[in-house]
Amino acid sequence: MPASLPPIDYAQLFQTLPGLYVLFAPDGTVLDVSDAHVASTGVSRAQAQGRPVLEAYPSDAASQASLSQSLARVRETLAPDAMPLLRYDLDRADGQGREERYWQVRHFPLLDAQGQVQYILQIPQDLTEQVLAARQAEAAELALSEEQDRTRFILENLPVMVWTNRPDGTPDYYNARWQAFTGQNPQAGIDWQTSHLVHPEDEARIYGEMGAAFERGEEFQLEFRLRRHDGQYRWLLARNVPRRDAQGRILMWVGAGLDVHDQKMMVAELLATTEAQAALAEQSLLNYQLAQHQRQLYTNLLEHAPAQITIVRGPEHRYEFANAEYRRLVGGQDVLGRTVAEVFPEVVAQGIIAQLDEVYRTGQLLQAEAVPVALENPPRTAYYNLTYQRFLENGQPAGITVYAYDVTELALARQALGQ
Question: Rounded distance, CA 99 to CA 42, Å?
Fold first, then answer.
């Protein structure tokens, strides 16, 4: 070594290394620590030196056992050893309690000339950010999975037919209601195309309109006849709306269909009765179609369903979701977080709350047609086809999906016919 160079102070060099280091005797006695380690743990060099590591840096019994085992393996194998991920909390800088911290601790043997362990070097690596980030990612993934399962449950149990199409219009999903209606099961190898189910007289018309709408990228509505599983063709009212990305590109199409065959037949019956009744039926149909066209289609599939759909949660039946049709029923007021009894106090005496209680308690599906409901704002009697279906979360009753279809005009028409 050139005489002009000063001797190296290895102790000072070790202490000022830019990292967390602890130097042990073979038995685990603390010999020295780096300044960075002192700053991180708050344990001074004077407090740690000369003390067994388990006393200098106390922790829970499991962590102490893991540390002792790691040091023993280094002494036995003369090879580096990594401890399992260790939680070792530190005092907060502001003095307000302790901060949750996670470490990857490794031990390295430093051998003497005879190949025996002279020192053991500990290098802790702070992995707190990675651990907490992984935990948050896992929680977010779990929440997303639960939300997807919940959405899938709702889609599969809605009393309306639902499907999706790729951007070019190719179908790629039908819900259970559609499969039950048609008797088709795409997942079992049935052709996704449905032209063989459409009435021959409607096929050219609807596929022409669909193709033009897909090409324009515009939402559209169709009425056509679809073959039911028993071979009967029934009229459907269907709507499709595109879902777009931030740049306006179509990602998918969402469709919902409602069996309106009985309503169509009722209109035909009224038209055949008398001229006056025919005018009434025509007006009823026009009003019905106008209402369908006026419904706003949003990106959420439930918003697009051509019916009044709500989700009420808990035994008190508190609104968690209400689609556009339902919000129009209540005059646009915000019902979320309120109970059915609070929004419609007049229905308590009519037994509707009792029906909800029964469905929530038993889980038995309730379906009723042309149910009269006396409403106060404005005062009137409306008629609904109702479906109440309970849903579970973690195996326990959580709430009820309510599907209501307004058949007031048809019910009044039937009354006018004396039926």
Answer: 12
